[in-house]
C-alpha cells in the first residue's frame, strides 16, 4: 500500500483545497478518493457535506491502516498532517478568542455609545425646554407692566357715575381674562403680606416699626412679583417690619401730669379739708402752666366739688 498526501486547509471555510490520495491495492485496482485535477474536496459516494470531523475520521482510518501495514512513510506523512491540523486548530482558536474579545469590546463600545446617545438626548431635551422656558418668560415678563397698570387703575380711580362703573367693569373683565391666561401658563404671584422676608423673591424698599407684625415680616406690598413655574420672573417690592418700637422714657412734664392725676384721684376719694388745701396750693402753682390739661380739669372738678360740699374753716 502506498499513501501520498498534500493538504492545504482553508482557515475560514475548513475545507481542503488540494489533497491527493491514491490507494493501490492488490491486483492493481485503484480506488480514487480524490482526483489530481480537482481543487475541491471530493467525498465518496453516499457521503454528503462532510466537514472536519469526517475528514479527520478518514485520516485516522488511513493512519490505522498504515500502522497495520507498517508503512512508516505514510505514518510520518499522516502525523505531519495531524500536526498541521493541530497547529491550524490552535491558530483558529486564537483567532476565535481574538474575535470574541473584539466582539466583547464592540459590545462595550455599543453600550457606551448607547449611554452617550441617551445622555445626549436628555441634554438636548433639557436644552430645548430651557430655551422654550426662556422665550416664554421673556414674553410674559414684557406683559407684566400691563398688570401693574391695571392694579394702579383699580386703586386710584374713583367711580362716581354709572357710566364710569360700566367702563370699570369692562376693564376689570379684560383684566380677569388676562389673569386666567397667565394662570394657564403656570404664572403665580409671589406671596407677600404676612410672610417672612425672603431676599430670593422679595425686594425690601422700606422698613417700619409695627406692633402687629414681628421683625422680618412683610407688612405691605408696593409691586407684585411673579413666578413662572419654579423660575422667578421678578421680585415683589415690599415693606418689612422692624418689630415693635422701643418705649421712650417719660418726660418731666409727663411725670407732673401723672402726679396731678394721682392727687385728683385722692381728692375725689376724700373730702377732708387738708386735701382741699393741698389741691388749692397745687392749682396756684400750676397757674403759670395753663397748657396742662390735667390742671384745667382739676379746676373744673374743684369748682364742682366746692359747690357740692363747702368746707368749714374755724375763724379766729
From TrEMBL:
A Pfam family per the record: GrpE
Cellular component, GO annotation: chloroplast; mitochondrial matrix
Gene Ontology biological-process entries: protein folding
PROSITE patterns per the UniProt record, alphabetical: GRPE
Location, primary (coarse class): cytoplasm
One GO molecular-function entry: protein-folding chaperone binding
Keyword Zinc: no
Protein name per UniProt: GrpE protein homolog
Amino acid at each position: 500500500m502506498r499513501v501520498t498526501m498534500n493538504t492545504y486547509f482553508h482557515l475560514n471555510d475548513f475545507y481542503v483545497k488540494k489533497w491527493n490520495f491514491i490507494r493501490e491495492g492488490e491486483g492493481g485496482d485503484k480506488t480514487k478518493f480524490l482526483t489530481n485535477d480537482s481543487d475541491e474536496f471530493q467525498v465518496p459516494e453516499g457521503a454528503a457535506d462532510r466537514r472536519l470531523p469526517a475528514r479527520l475520521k478518514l485520516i485516522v482510518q488511513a493512519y490505522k491502516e498504515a500502522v497495520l501495514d507498517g508503512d512508516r512513510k505514510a505514518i510520518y506523512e499522516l502525523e505531519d498532517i495531524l500536526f498541521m491540523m493541530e497547529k491550524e486548530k490552535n491558530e483558529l482558536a486564537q483567532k476565535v478568542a481574538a474575535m470574541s474579545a473584539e466582539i466583547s469590546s464592540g459590545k462595550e463600545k455599543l453600550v457606551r455609545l448607547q449611554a452617550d446617545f441617551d445622555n445626549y438626548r436628555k441634554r438636548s431635551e433639557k436644552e430645548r425646554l430651557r430655551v422654550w422656558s426662556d422665550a416664554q418668560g421673556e414674553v410674559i415678563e414684557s406683559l407684566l407692566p400691563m398688570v401693574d397698570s391695571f392694579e394702579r387703575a383699580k386703586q386710584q380711580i374713583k367711580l362716581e357715575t354709572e357710566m364710569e362703573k360700566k367702563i370699570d367693569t369692562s376693564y376689570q373683565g379684560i383684566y380677569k381674562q388676562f389673569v386666567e391666561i397667565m394662570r394657564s401658563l403656570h404664572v403665580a404671584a409671589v406671596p407677600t403680606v404676612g410672610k417672612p422676608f425672603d431676599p430670593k423673591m422679595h425686594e425690601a424698599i422700606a422698613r417700619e416699626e409695627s406692633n402687629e407684625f414681628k421683625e422680618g415680616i412683610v407688612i405691605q406690598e408696593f409691586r407684585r412679583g411673579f413666578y413662572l413655574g419654579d423660575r422667578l420672573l421678578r421680585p415683589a417690592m415690599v415693606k418689612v417690619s422692624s418689630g415693635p418700637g422701643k418705649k421712650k422714657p417719660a418726660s418731666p412734664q409727663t411725670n407732673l401730669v401723672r402726679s396731678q392725676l394721682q392727687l385728683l384721684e385722692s381728692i375725689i376719694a376724700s373730702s377732708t379739708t387738708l386735701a382741699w388745701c393741698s389741691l388749692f396750693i397745687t392749682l396756684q402753682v400750676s397757674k403759670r402752666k395753663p397748657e396742662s390739661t390735667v390742671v384745667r380739669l382739676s379746676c373744673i372738678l374743684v369748682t364742682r366739688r366746692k359747690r357740692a360740699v363747702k368746707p368749714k374753716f374755724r375763724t379766729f
